Amino acid sequence: xxxxxxxxxxxxxxxxKSSGLTPEEKKEQAKLRKEFIATIRLNLRTQLDNIDxxxxxxTITNLGEKYGDKKRH
Length: 73
What we know:
- The protein is mainly alpha-helical.
- The protein has 3 helices and 2 strands.
- Strands 1-2 form a two-stranded antiparallel sheet.
- The longest helix is centred in the middle third of the chain and has 27 residues, at 23-49.
């Protein structure tokens, strides 16, 4: 998600608190929030998929390969 979309989310949030939003702006805000949440989830999933754990016997297990759903990427 680029910086201009983040700025727009913030603009709409400030406007909603001060004067309220039009129905079109509410739809835009909902769309931008969905996109933002999807981006955050993808980033978190990517980070979690790249975690390696060293087992007691010295082997290294990648949690993304063990538990991750590779169909998402």
